[in-house]
Specification:
Number of helices: 3
GO biological process, one term: L-tryptophan catabolic process to kynurenine
Strand order of the largest sheet: 1-2
Strand content: 5-15%
Shape: elongated
Oligomer: single chain
Radius of gyration: 14 Å
Number of strands: 2
Distance between the termini: 44 Å
GO molecular function: arylformamidase activity
Structural class: mainly alpha
Largest sheet: 2 strands, antiparallel
Order of helices and strands: HHEEH
């Protein structure tokens, strides 16, 4: 790939991850996860997929729930 092709391929922010919903946060909490880690740009899937619907990357909605859960002291 040349530089333009690389930029175009990287432009849509997409990566796999867990669902950033309250149900997922409860599932992690109830199973007493001590840590959540990922080698992605985020732990949650990007763009956010909520109730099976892909949301725009700018509409995070509930998606920061997982971050809040695992980063709170």
């Amino acid at each position: 790939m040349n530089g333009d092709e690389q930029s175009a391929a990287m432009a849509p922010l997409r990566c796999c991850g867990i669902e950033g919903t309250e149900d997922m946060a409860r599932w992690l909490w109830n199973r007493q996860f001590a840590a959540v880690a990922s080698d992605n740009i985020a732990v949650e899937a990007m763009p956010p997929i909520i109730d099976g619907v892909e949301r725009p990357p700018t509409e995070f909605g509930e998606c920061d729930l997982i971050y809040d859960l695992v980063s709170s002291g």
